[in-house]
Write a structure and sequence with these properties.
This protein is mainly α and 162 residues long. It is built from nine helices and no strands.
Length: 162
């Protein structure tokens, strides 16, 4: 089955490859983890990347953390980060808490909520110094949002005035 998977990937049949990979994981088929890690970073197809990330996550391949972090930082994954974040869940990602805070503050709805759900269980592993730094970032965001809210209120008043 793995040779079939490689053939699908090499022929850019991402959807079929994703389906086969999911089936392989369900059936506990042998997979070449190193190959999947390599394809995870090389693939331009977000669905295939997500399938590989979750497959490696399901298999407990701790080595997937750094490639996922690399992908999360890539502009190429903008709009496709939520699933990648979800694949981090079973692993130790505490060293990337600041990235998660940034995504919590600035990501779209899914990315923000997934980041929050990843931060919650590791709070006791984050240093006091880092917690203070993250709290300052959140307070700055609140201030920015208050300024934006005031601007929006002023704009509404502009349209409501006669």
């Amino acid at each position: 089955m793995f040779d079939e998977l490689k053939g699908l990937i090499e022929n850019n049949l991402a959807e079929e490859a994703s389906d086969l990979l999911d089936e392989m994981i369900e059936k506990n088929e042998m997979v070449d983890k190193e190959y999947l890690l390599e394809i995870l970073l090389k693939s331009k197809n977000p669905n295939l990347r997500n399938s590989i990330a979750f497959a490696l996550s399901d298999l407990g391949v701790e080595e997937v953390v750094e490639p996922i972090i690399t992908l999360l930082k890539s502009p190429e994954t903008l709009g496709h980060r939520g699933s990648l974040l979800g694949a981090l869940e079973p692993f130790n990602y505490v060293n990337h808490a600041e990235l998660l805070v940034d995504y919590f503050l600035n990501g779209n709805y899914e990315v923000s909520r997934r980041s929050y759900s990843l931060l919650e269980p590791i709070l006791d592993q984050i240093t006091v110094k880092d917690k203070e730094k993250f709290a300052r970032k959140i307070e700055e965001k609140i201030e920015d949002l208050e300024i934006e809210l005031d601007f929006l209120k002023d704009t509404v008043e502009l349209f409501e005035s006669e």
